[in-house]
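Notes from the 1:1 (GR / supervisor)

We went over the backlog. Supervisor wanted to see one worked example end to end before approving the batch request, so GR pasted a single chain during the call. The sequence is below; no edits were made to it. Supervisor asked that the structure be written out right there so they could see what the output format looks like.
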Amino acid sequence: MRTSDGGETWQRLDAGTEAWLSSVSFMTPDLGLVAGGGTLLCTRDGGAHWSSLLAALPEATRGSAFRDVLMRDERTAFLVGDEGVILRTDDGGATWRQVPSGVDVWLRAVHFTPGGIGFIAGVGVLLRSTDGGASWQPAGDFAGIKLCDVAFADERTGYACGFDGAVHATTDGGTSWNVVWRGEGGPLNALSFPSAGAGFAAGDSGTLLKLTRSAAR
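Structure output shown during the call:
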């Protein structure tokens, strides 16, 4: 779906696939990527046309269930999915290489702070990168928690959420985390920070939360 009037109306687009699609990321109004079940698509004309990038992926990963894609700039993007798959491109999607994750679980979301610290949320794990995504190490203790998303308001204040229905927060750049809110409406699925001062968490049963940096303390 695409909107060109701030969300007042939406237009359905033809992606050329019947696969389920889970994530979309645009770097410019024209250049974007869409990921899903065994699918990676690219548009260079604002979504009017889409082409498959599967042939550019390492062969062993082409059938993976891709859960999230993130463009950091017009050349660099990250793709994460099941069985611990992390893929990276540095040439605008022409070629992709696999980055070791150290895990073999479902990876659901990838996020970078403005300063370039990376985070990947998954089943029982939160990974962090301090070298621009070249390598990843566990951050915090999320054993037994199926994380769905992670987002940062600034370089030190961040949040993670998932199937436990809780908002986990950090104020030290992801080294330590604590629960700042826990609901009874089921999983929390997504986080977004349109500004550094406040963000939102969305989940099952119509749950919608507003988060501020003061809530993380």
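Supervisor's comment: Residues 31 and 44 are 4 Å apart (CA to CA).
Batch request approved.
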